[in-house]
Amino acid sequence: MASxxxxxxxxxxxxxxxxxxxxAFPSADLTEDDLSQNPQFCKLLAKLSEHVDSTGLxxxxxxxLAKADEELQAEMKKWMRPMIIHQLLEEMVQExxxxxxxxxxxxxxxxxxxxxxxxxxxxxxxxxxxxxxAPSPVLGISAxxxxxxxxxxxxxxxxxxxxxxxxxxHLKRKANSILGYVQPDSEKDSDxxxxxxxxxxxxxxxxxxxxxxxxxxxxxxxAFKLTRExxxxxxxxxxxxxxxxxxxxxxxxxxxxELDRKKLEYVEGKCQLAVQKIRLQMLEVQLDTYTASKIAxxxxxSEHLETELxxxxxxxxxxxxxxxxxxxxxQEFKDLAEEYARLQAEIKAKKLAVEDFTKPQLN
Length: 363
Hints:
Elements: H1 2-24, H2 32-37, H3 39-48, H4 59-102, H5 107-129, H6 143-149, H7 153-182, H8 191-199, H9 201-289, H10 292-327, H11 331-358
Helix pairs in contact: 1-3, 4-5, 5-6, 5-7
């Protein structure tokens, strides 16, 4: 009992070590067979997992990377803030252009959005052509040209005064649209309640993202366990197959004679059945082919052929009798027959020669 429990505890310890190594390095593309075949390498990875994370970075580097990532996120927010505002302003202009196709806009609104569009276009040209540094060498456009193309200062001033309120309305519409997508039931809520819910929307989205990430981690663990169980199941199945194969080979000779006899009887019965089916099909074909009228016709044809056969046989007998009578003359008749055949050949040859000689010759 003690000797059997000792290997089992060693096996369980190795399996636990393999599990820890595979979980510590999920992206290393390792299998349990690799770790089993290289135990020293497995121990090295186990020691290494105490000093690095799943990506292979030590703790100090991971902290530096996290700090650098925070700084990058902060800089990205600073850089994206004016870009987002510019994109919102372009969306406002596009919505106004589309809205004019459906209904007439107020003159002051039309003037506001026209001024805003011109300012946005001038700003885009200035940034794209780097006009703040020097005039464009290709197009010959300078900042002064854009300034002359800008609306009047009064129109720009009026637009700038109205812009915060219009931008606030646009942001409110987008916020309600996003909230309606995340929480469809909030369409019936009041504006104050919608604003309150929208203020909590980042926390809700973050919580939802954390929940999804937690589910993904659980799925990774489940996938790892499934892979482990599948591996064990395949190994057990292979062992069972080997055992079954051994038992089959041991017992096969004992029952092989009986199985062969049964198989032979089955094949004989199947052959007899096939022969009977063929005979049945032949009879069916004959019944379908030879009807009563066809059989009567075949009888008449058979009687006619038998009559001709008898006449032919009689003629054959007559010819045979003549040949026998000729054979009675012996060698003299044979020589006469050969001489007759030779004379016939000479006559035929001389006829051909006379015909060739009598033909008119062409000059």
